[in-house]
Amino acid sequence: MILEQFKLDGKVAVVTGAGRGIGQAYALGLAEAGADVAVVDVIDMEETIGKIKALGRRAIGIKADLSKGEEAAPRIVAEVVKELGSLDILVNNAGIIKREPFTEHSAANWNLVLSINLSAPFFLSQQAAKQMIAQGKGGKIINIASMLSFQGGILVPGYAASKGGIKSLTMLMANELSPHGICVNAIAPGYIATENTRPIRENPERNKSILDRIPAGRWGTPDDLKGICVFLASPASDYMTGYTYACDGGWLAR
Asked: 2-249 — its CATH code?
């Protein structure tokens, strides 16, 4: 039966930036589909962990500063394998955004955004892929892209560069990891109502301009992203790799 292909029973997933918001939704969606989940964040993770355990799944929290991804990645993977036994799914969700005009965008903000949004997924995926290859049963890596993987945006140079990079990195990883049965895809969320987007939603003119372009007529919610994450993590998507999938209420179609 086709619905069996969407189940994640016996799988172990890692979701970064899962203490709240979209990352929490990804983690809960994977747990609802049957996976045990390791939550990685710099903020308190007890709410997410409690909700996962309430679903009858195992959950652990790993505090890590992903701006130092090269140092953090080996420790994260080792702890996941030690505590949960394997690593089958990685969701590189953690990310930040710094809003400044291009001519004023500081080196500090550029370096910080790139380190968390692009370098950390590279280093963590590298370590996760090594573990998946050693396990010999394939795996799924899901990067988080953005509408700015397809568009330039304004006032967010570092963010735009990082998300463009994620789209290209996803394709490269798919090319190299496919022979090992590892599928690599990316999700590009549209305008989702989170703390990151609060400044935009609270600006009446900007908020209206966004809503006027979204065919669905509303901002997305973190729960709107659960389905695509579970799909890309499951056997149902085993012949899909190297692509960035928009979940945007039709934004890119307008």
From this structure: 3.40.50.720
138, 93 contact by CB (below 8 A)? no
Question: Which sequence spans correspond to the domains of the chain?
Answer: 2-249
Q: Return the active site residues.
A: 159
Q: Within a 13 Å sphere around the CA of 31, how many CA atoms are in the beta-carbon half?
A: 26
Render pLDDT for 5-49 as a digit per residue (tens, 0 to 9): 999 999 999 999 999 999 999 999 999 999 999 999 999 999 999
124 in Cβ contact with 69 (< 8 Å): yes
106: how many CB neighbours lie within 10 A of its CB? Answer: 11
The residue length of the chain stands at 254
pLDDT of 197 strictly over 90? no
Tokens of 72: 């953090």
Average pLDDT, the chain: 97
